[in-house]
Amino acid sequence: MAEDFKAGFTGSPSAPPEEIRKAAKTAAEVVRRETTAIATGAADHPETTTSLLLGVGAIAFAIGYFVGRGSRDEYSYWR
Questions:
Q1: Does 76 fall in a domain?
Q2: 32-37: long-range contacts, CB 8 A cutoff, minimum separation 24
């Protein structure tokens, strides 16, 4: 019965290590290129970048505040 169970990794990888390295290198190049594009856009438009960061920070603060308020006990120990 144990021989019929085919879960998990039971063989060799379908792609040789050279192809996996090539795919990883390509993915790293794409991430590097996109990061450079974001940094260039932020440098070209500092006001927009600041506004976006402040907006996201305010939304994150509000979510944290309301989650914290919602998780508090009904009884107030400090009166």
A1: no
A2: none
**Domain annotation covers residue 78:** no
Domain count, the chain: 1
27-48 pLDDT, tens digit per residue, is: 999 999 999 999 999 999 999 9
Give residue 40's domain range. Answer: 16-70
Decide: pTM greater than 0.85: no
